[in-house]
């Protein structure tokens, strides 16, 4: 709803971005409350839309959650691809991967959403298919620099490092993260020449 000068609400007659705002709000709720805590009311409040707008665009909570996760994966896949645009040497690759693990608040939010998606996918075959496609796409990007087998191992290492970074009370030094990635690449594809 838009606010009037007096602070009251005025109905939006034409709001082509409403559906997208609802999806973004659903992602915000998933970050703060998890998949188990998402409700139509929380999403409506976060998106600043009437509850009926949420149920109009999404017939069920499961549909809302699935579409929000799909929206997240679509954007995250494009962002991930973009991270590697200027990578030409192994050192460039290492720096991108270290930043991926150690990134700031926006990366933290993204990582939380990724793990919420994976947890929800344990019980939902449609979400499992989404995570499998996302994993395949991410590994394909990594494989351009490492080959497919190394990409799979590197992907698993990155997931673990990201989870540990999220959970750590005292973050490990950047150099520790960097050393783990360098070691993994050296073991898998040999030392940099």
UniProtKB/TrEMBL annotation:
PROSITE patterns: HTH_TETR_2. Pfam families: TetR_C_31, TetR_N. It comes from the Bacteria. Residues 39-58 bind DNA. InterPro entries: Homeodomain-like_sf, HTH_TetR, Tet_transcr_reg_TetR-rel_C_sf, TetR_C_31. The keyword Secreted does not apply. Residues 16-76 form the HTH tetR-type domain. This is TetR family transcriptional regulator C-terminal domain-containing protein. It comes from Actinacidiphila acididurans.
């Amino acid at each position: 709803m838009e606010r009037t000068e007096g602070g009251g609400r005025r109905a939006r007659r034409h709001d082509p971005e409403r559906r997208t705002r609802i999806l973004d709000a659903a992602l915000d709720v998933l970050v703060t409350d998890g998949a188990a805590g998402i409700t139509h009311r929380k999403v409506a409040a976060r998106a600043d839309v009437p509850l009926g707008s949420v149920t109009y665009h999404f017939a069920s909570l499961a549909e809302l959650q699935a579409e929000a996760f799909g929206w997240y994966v679509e954007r995250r896949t494009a962002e991930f691809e973009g991270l590697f645009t200027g990578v030409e040497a192994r050192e460039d690759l290492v720096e991108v991967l270290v930043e991926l693990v150690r990134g700031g608040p926006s990366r933290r939010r993204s990582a939380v959403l990724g793990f919420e998606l994976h947890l929800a996918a344990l019980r939902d075959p449609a979400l499992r298919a989404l995570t499998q496609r996302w994993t395949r796409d991410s590994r394909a990007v990594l494989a351009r620099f490492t080959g497919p087998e190394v990409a799979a191992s590197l992907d698993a290492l990155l997931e673990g490092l990201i989870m540990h970074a999220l959970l750590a009370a005292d973050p490990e030094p950047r150099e520790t993260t960097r050393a783990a990635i360098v070691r993994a690449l050296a073991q898998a594809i040999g030392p940099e020449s």
